[in-house]
């Protein structure tokens, strides 16, 4: 028997749930290290422009498609245009791939939180701690199971009683924790190896002030691509999540207003995450530590917490609790997308589909965990990097499928059915679509071109063409 489709109770519930999906590991982990790597304030400026243009267009498109069709990603595109049904399958494939590894990362965060909670010292700051943990055969699987079980429990509760209720509690707490840690970071100071005193405010200046040193056209394009990649990662667009959440939005909700609120919430948290992490890293590890890349959270920050001495453990507990909340709301949105689509396709209850997707997530996540020991390999990727099993899944979903899906979606909306289809949905209740002209121009002319370049670059084809 087909289960009745759930819905958010109102605009606040939708905004908090959508923001919870958008505000994830990407904001708090990826955004700061990209910002440090790509010229501080220069990256911030470029990213802000992209959020107000590309982010706004892609987010509005996904949410409007979901609400107008009242279908999840797998069937929504077929409802728009039957010949474009394949786009729904491509979109569905993204969360299928992301779900294989997101709970693994959630397990890493859970491990650090538990370690700081029960240990009286700074064990995670020891050299080799992270590598030793992820390469062990049992521990990563155990903590992944804990995180996955919590994710499944929230999704099992449904839209209003599960996702909305949890997001309404978690998101305010997450923001309070981020603000508190950010303020604390700005008060820090320490003497460097050269005898000079480094302060949190100096670190903030490095974070905020644009660095144009050595900037070339090629370097600018690299920063632009990093910022666009972060946009996908952050706003949860082009992966079916916002289409699914949009299908739960009631017709009387003002889409123009709510999508703007999601943009502000997501970008604000990313900005605060940088202000929370980078000044503290600068104080204790210098500018080199700020640009430590993907190892920032699990290797560099524990050393920062250790250098804080007495307050370090408390800050670490608060930090990884906040990281856990961010990872949970994002993982919930990925799993909900899979469950909701399967409920629609197989006409089964939420309970059965939660069980099915739960088993899939468990099996694939175990394989990802084993990718650091039993199944370890290094595979060269088209973008010039090399990676293990987790990196391969991340590359296919984020660097290959997302820009490709955005390219196809912009062609479908901009040229096949026309922007009026989306504009009419946004203005459904007489609301003013404040950025209508920008939307029409972007979806037809700018998004297709930029997404094509991004896709060709991320797949390595651009270098061959150029």
Summarize the structure.
This protein has 466 residues and is an all-alpha fold. It has helices at 11-22, 25-37, 41-69, 73-80, 85-118, 129-135, 139-156, 159-186, 200-208, 217-235, 241-247, 255-290, 296-307, 312-346, 350-370, 389-416, 420-426, 436-458, 461-465, and strands at residues 189-191, 197-199, 379-380, 386-387. It has a single domain (11-465), classed as Hydantoin permease (Orthogonal Bundle), CATH 1.10.4160.
Describe the structure.
Keywords: Membrane, Transmembrane, Transmembrane helix, Transport. Its main location: membrane. Pfam families: SNF. There is one protein chain. The chain has one domain (11-465): Hydantoin permease (Orthogonal Bundle), CATH 1.10.4160.10. It has 466 residues and is mainly alpha-helical. Helices cover 75% and strands 2% of the residues. It has a two-stranded antiparallel ribbon. Strands 3-4 form a two-stranded antiparallel sheet. The chain contains 19 helices and 4 strands.
Descriptive labels:
two-stranded antiparallel ribbon; Hydantoin permease; mainly alpha; about 475 residues
Low-pLDDT regions: none
Please provide the count of β strands: 4
CATH architecture: Orthogonal Bundle
Structural class: mainly alpha
CATH class: Mainly Alpha
CATH topology: Hydantoin permease
Protein name: Sodium-dependent transporter
Transmembrane segments: 40-65, 86-109, 129-157, 169-188, 223-243, 264-285, 314-335, 356-375, 395-417, 438-462
Membrane topology: Multi-pass membrane protein
Subcellular location: Membrane
């Amino acid at each position: 028997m087909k289960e009745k489709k759930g819905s958010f109770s109102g605009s606040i519930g939708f905004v908090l749930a959508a923001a919870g999906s958008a505000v994830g590991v990407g904001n708090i982990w990826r955004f700061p290290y990209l910002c440090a790597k790509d010229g501080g304030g220069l990256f911030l400026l470029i990213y802000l422009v992209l959020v107000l243009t590309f982010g706004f267009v892609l987010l509005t498109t996904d949410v409007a498609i979901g609400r107008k069709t009242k279908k999840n990603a797998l069937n929504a595109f077929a409802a728009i245009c039957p010949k474009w049904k394949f786009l729904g399958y491509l979109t569905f494939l993204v969360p299928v791939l992301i779900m294989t590894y997101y709970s693994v990362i959630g397990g890493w965060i859970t491990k650090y939180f538990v370690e700081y909670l029960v240990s009286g010292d700074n064990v995670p700051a020891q050299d080799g701690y992270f590598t030793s943990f992820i390469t062990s055969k049992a521990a990563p699987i155990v903590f992944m199971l804990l995180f996955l079980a919590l994710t499944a429990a929230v999704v099992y509760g449904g839209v209003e009683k599960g996702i909305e209720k949890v997001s309404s509690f978690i998101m305010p707490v997450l923001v309070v924790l981020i603000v508190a840690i950010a303020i604390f970071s700005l008060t820090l100071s320490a003497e460097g190896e050269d005898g000079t005193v480094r302060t949190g405010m100096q670190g903030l200046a490095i974070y905020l002030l644009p660095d144009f040193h050595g900037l070339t056209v090629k370097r600018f394009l690299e920063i632009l691509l990093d910022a666009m990649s972060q946009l996908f990662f952050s706003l949860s667009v082009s992966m079916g999540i916002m289409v699914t959440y949009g299908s739960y939005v009631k017709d009387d909700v003002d889409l123009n207003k709510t999508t703007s609120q999601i943009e502000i919430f997501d970008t604000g948290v990313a900005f605060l995450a940088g202000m929370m992490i980078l000044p503290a890293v600068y104080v204790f590890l210098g500018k080199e530590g700020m640009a430590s890349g993907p190892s920032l959270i699990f290797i560099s920050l524990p050393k920062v917490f250790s250098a804080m001495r007495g307050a370090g453990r408390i800050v670490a507990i608060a930090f990884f609790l906040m990281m856990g909340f961010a990872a949970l709301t994002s993982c919930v949105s990925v799993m909900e997308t899979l469950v909701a689509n399967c409920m629609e396709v197989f006409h089964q209850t939420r309970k059965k589909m939660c069980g099915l997707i739960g088993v899939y997530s468990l099996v694939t996540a175990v394989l990802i965990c084993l990718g650091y020991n039993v199944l370890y390999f290094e595979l060269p990727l088209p973008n010039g990097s090399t990676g293990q099993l987790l990196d391969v899944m991340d590359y296919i979903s984020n660097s290959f499928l997302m820009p490709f899906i955005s390219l196809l979606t912009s062609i479908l909306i901009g040229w096949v059915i026309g922007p009026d289809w989306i504009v009419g949905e946004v203005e459904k209740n007489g609301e003013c679509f404040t950025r209508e002209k920008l939307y029409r121009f972007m979806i037809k002319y700018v998004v297709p071109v930029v997404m094509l370049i991004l896709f060709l670059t991320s797949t390595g084809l651009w270098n061959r063409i150029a």
